[in-house]
Amino acid sequence: MMAYMNVIFRRFVLLAGFCTGLSVTAMANSDAVRFSENVNLALRRTADVLLRANGDSLSVIPPVKQSDANTFSVQMDRMFDYDKLPETLQRSLTSYHIDRPYSVAVLDCETGEVKLGYQFFDLNQPDGIPCKGRSRDEGCYTVQIRFTPEAPKPKSAGNTWLLVSFGGTLAGLGFIAWNRARHKKVPETKPQDVPAPHSRLTFGNSWLDTANQTLYNGESIQTLTFREAKLLAVFARNINQVLERDAILKSVWEDEGVTVGRSVDVFVSRLRKMLSADPQVKISAIHGVGYKMEVYS
């Protein structure tokens, strides 16, 4: 009997080591799939915002194409405002937590010729984005984004054996636990329902999706940065109430450790611009105290 149990244990150890190796590969594949899905969504959001900026809310956006692991493109059947592309695309990528460097090319649909383009680092250059502000011809264009490939993670035989050994240890512990528990009846338990978080905050003619950091203002859809969304949520939860500057800093910037008083003014200015299309909402400065979001019916 003991010899038979030893054979089962050895097989269990080998199987656990094999499964551990498979789980590492599965995790890598999962990351690549998740990256592709997020880029797809970011590009479609970019196309939607650019079309809406041109007064087009009805045209169908073609599927995003992926030519390799790092290159994606979406076709725009008519010319869009190129000057709005860099900021719109960067906001979309940020909203889906994509922070890899990239290059952008605007191609002629028929010839594939590059008409416009820029690099990620151009966003922070004093001269700005190349060709910005120049006149362009109407026509069909393809927006292509190519990401810098990620450096491959180092692999070593030692790590592989470590994973196998770790999997074997887990298998051994699992076998012991199973052997002890097989004579013990465990009562069944039912999972408790977890309520979905409330991520929608409504004010005036606008509402904020806190989960996706997105502001819906009439026909306008704007993606906010993490800090912008956090500040707007504080105002939305305290409508028509005066919020002291120190309280705002503590609520929005407390996790940074060090804060700058001007941060509040800068971010409030950004929110005012985003909310300018909603006449029912106004963020007022209370001299010497702080700010108040006023909502009119």
UniProtKB/TrEMBL annotation:
Keywords on record: DNA-binding, Membrane, Signal, Transmembrane, Transmembrane helix
Annotated OmpR/PhoB-type domain residues: 198-295
Pfam families: Trans_reg_C
SMART domains: Trans_reg_C (SM00862)
Transmembrane segments: 160-178
DNA-binding region positions on the chain: 198-295
SUPFAM superfamilies the UniProt entry points to: C-terminal effector domain of the bipartite response regulators
Signal peptide: 1-28
Name this protein carries in UniProt: OmpR/PhoB-type domain-containing protein
Organism: Dyadobacter endophyticus
